[in-house]
Amino acid sequence: MNRLHNARNLVATLLISTLGASGAWAQASEMSSGEIRKVDKAASKITIKHGEIKNLDMPPMTMVFQARDPALLEKAKAGDKVRFSAELKDGAYIVTAVEATP
Fold it and tell me: For the chain, N or C: smaller number of CB within 10 Å?
């Protein structure tokens, strides 16, 4: 059992180092749940009522995020339930990915 555990850890470590911190696996593991409250396409901002954002050590709240890519906001609308990833860069909270949830 210990060898199997060690092998799994090795494979996971190799995958993480291969994909890198900004890879798809890292993004998927850092997704948080929320509900869009407002979309401001002109300012590239989105307001999300969210649960805990673990990678930012942030408790649940409603807040405004900048969109890294304005295209992320094209299909977004108030009331949509979403999973999203965010980061803190140069003092600003930025949404880096948004996907609708059923």
Answer: C
